[in-house]
Design brief:
Structural class: alpha/beta
Strand content: 15-25%
Largest sheet: 7 strands, mixed
Number of strands: 25
Number of helices: 13
Bound molecules: adenosine-5'-triphosphate, magnesium ion
Oligomer: single chain
Strand order of the largest sheet: 10-23-24-25-21-22-11
Distance between the termini: 48 Å
């Protein structure tokens, strides 16, 4: 979509983002120690997404750690696609992941795919077979599970475990050549069926799978498992610190076992806690379900916790990085409040966003004593947080819109906004006093007649008289119509996977997570705002132009409301 933003008199945002600070953490200390002790002479990390979905904010944490730590130690970071599950993977995901990593502000050194290493990994399997450390098993998936035992019961050895090297070699090569049906046989590492760590009970290295791979096509009929591919890929890339989330901790002994058996570069795995956020699901599988079932408009629906969704909603990479650094890393999983993420979004947008006026629920105001046909250009400050952002002109005229909420015919106690007989300030405009109302057949106020005081131009009274309220407005004749989408939490439960009997996590979806305002009124400077531009709508929140916008018909997303409930939560905690 092409939209012309050059005509706009308001630059959507100056580059005045919030500063970043990174608290120290145990990963940093570990790397520093490895360099000091001479264990490694360089730092090489990798970010290893499986291309089976779009990246979410949990991945942002891993990305910041992988890239951020390497940067800090003058090291390098590869982007490596962990593409060992051809049935679930797709180039759409490969492309979106690259876009999202770049958007978040990182550049990889090498771009690799585990599938680049399939030949080498196959050769290494042959090496393990020859060393008597791997065997072809004829048990089917159910039997393998049954023989595996449980946490409290040791496993049983497969009757095929003690095949000769020659037989194993022959069968494995025939597995590769497609002589057996899918699932008929596996290649397993010969480790220890009674190990207390289930990952060491003869883990599967290869399975037979006739599936077209998005990169290797139909070349392979056997695919390595995650465990058999990951550490070996790390080693090929001379990765020193292979950082991953805690659920892989139990896999570390296996990771090390493969590397030791092969005698290859000793990459080491280090685990950190997984990011979890209240009211948010961070699982590609479940997010995919939301997309497939049409519960959201796609992976980049602005309510999604994906980087694509957050970008479209108006979140900035700076805000996400600051959030991630502040959450920090530890060795135990916890949960972070969604309000904390929103706090960082607000903090960054506050610095960088131009202020504009927009009315979401318009109520017509007629200023009876204002000259018919007169238009004045009022000076409005673009960003009080940024003196370089300058000012703009906003047209003022006889008929205006204000928010319905900013008028009450019968004001409740402590209501200081407009009501009959009350005087308020129109931001950058004049003081006005409500005189009378016009109602429709249903008795609703549809028009308020006011008078203005010409001496208060710009918003101050020369006689020093004060008003208790300043409200925003838009000139009716000059207003631009727009659709505005207001978002709320996607789930109603803090933990969306907390279910009653018979429920599915989609039962916890918030039916009111999207409210569409069809006819909001915006100040005219927003007429040509380009998709992605971010603004603060005064008194309402931060908004950004959605990619659904068409020339003459803008769509805005509310990124986040103004009220900072995190600041309150933090204060309470002190
Ligand atoms: P999901 O459970 O959403 O499918 P995943 O862990 O399967 O995520 P991968 O593509 O395998 O996704 O992950 C790539 C990297 O991102 C891994 O190193 C993983 O540890 C890390 N990662 C994924 N989710 C999180 C999270 N919530 N917090 C921190 N790191 C994460
Ligand atoms: Mg995974």
């Amino acid at each position: 979509m092409l939209m012309n933003s050059s005509k706009s008199s308001v630059e959507p945002e100056a580059v005045n983002s919030a500063p970043e600070s990174r608290p120290a953490n145990f990963l940093q200390e570990r790397i520093a120690e490895d360099l000091r002790s001479g264990k490694y002479q360089h730092v090489q990390t990798r970010f290893p997404p499986e291309p089976n979905g779009y990246l979410h904010i949990g991945h942002a944490k891993a990305i910041c750690i992988d890239f951020g730590l390497a940067d800090e130690f003058g090291g390098k970071t590869n982007l490596r696609f962990d593409d060992t599950n051809p049935e679930k993977e797709d180039t759409e995901y490969v492309d979106s992941i690259q876009e999202d990593v770049r958007w978040l502000g990182f550049n990889w050194d090498g771009l690799y795919y585990a599938s680049d290493y399939f030949d080498q990994i196959y050769e290494w399997a042959i090496q393990l077979i020859k060393a008597g450390k791997a065997y072809v098993d004829d048990l089917n998936a159910d039997e393998v599970r049954e023989y595996r035992g449980t946490l409290t019961q040791p496993g049983k050895e497969s009757p095929y475990r003690n095949r000769s090297v020659e037989e194993n070699l022959d069968l494995f090569i025939r597995m590769k050549n497609g002589e057996f049906p899918d699932g008929a046989r596996t290649l397993r590492a010969k480790i220890d069926m009674s190990s207390p760590n289930l990952n060491l009970r003869d883990p599967i290295m290869y399975r037979i799978l006739r599936a077209e791979h998005h990169r290797t096509g139909n070349k392979w009929l056997i695919y390595p498992t995650y465990d058999w591919a990951h550490g070996q890929s790390d080693s090929i890339e001379k990765v020193t610190h292979s950082m991953c989330s805690l659920e892989f901790a139990d896999h570390q002994p296996l990771y090390n076992w493969y590397i030791e058996q092969l005698g290859i570069f000793p990459s080491q795995q280090i685990e950190f806690d997984r990011l979890a956020i209240t009211y948010t699901l961070l699982s590609k599988r479940k997010l995919l379900q939301l997309v497939n079932e049409g519960r959201v408009s796609g992976w980049n629906d602005p309510r999604m916790p994906t980087l694509g969704g957050m970008r479209r909603r108006g979140y900035t990479p700076e805000a996400i990085r600051n959030f991630v650094w502040t959450v920090g890393v530890s060795r135990t999983n916890g949960i972070v409040e969604l309000e904390m993420l929103e706090h960082f979004v607000r903090e960054d947008l506050n610095r960088r966003s131009a202020r504009v006026m927009a009315v979401l629920h318009p109520l017509k105001i007629v200023i009876d004593n204002y000259p018919e046909g007169q238009v004045e250009q009022m000076d409005a400050v673009n960003n009080p947080e940024d003196p370089n952002a300058g000012s703009r002109k906003v047209p003022f005229s006889k008929i205006l819109y204000i928010e319905q909420d900013d008028f009450r015919e019968v004001p409740p106690p402590k209501y200081f906004r407009l009501s009959p007989g009350k005087e308020v300030r129109l931001r950058y405009g004049y003081f006005i006093t409500a005189k009378s109302v016009v109602k429709n057949a249903q008795g609703e106020v549809v028009e308020v007649h006011c008078t203005y005081d010409p001496a208060t131009r710009g918003g101050n009274a020369p006689d020093g008289r004060k008003v208790k309220s300043t409200i925003h407005w838009v000139s009716a004749e000059h207003a631009v119509d727009a659709e505005v989408r207001i978002y709320d939490k996607l789930f109603t439960k803090e933990n969306p996977t907390e279910l009653e009997e018979g429920q599915n996590f989609t039962d916890n979806l918030n039916p009111n997570s999207l409210e569409v305002i069809a006819n909001a009124k915006l100040e005219p400077s927003l007429a040509d705002a380009a998709p992605g531009s971010r603004y603060q709508f005064e008194r309402l929140g931060y908004f950004c132009v959605d990619t659904d916008s068409k020339p003459g018909r803008s769509v805005f997303n509310r990124t986040v409301a103004l009220k900072d409930s995190w600041a309150k939560i933090e204060k309470k905690a002190k």
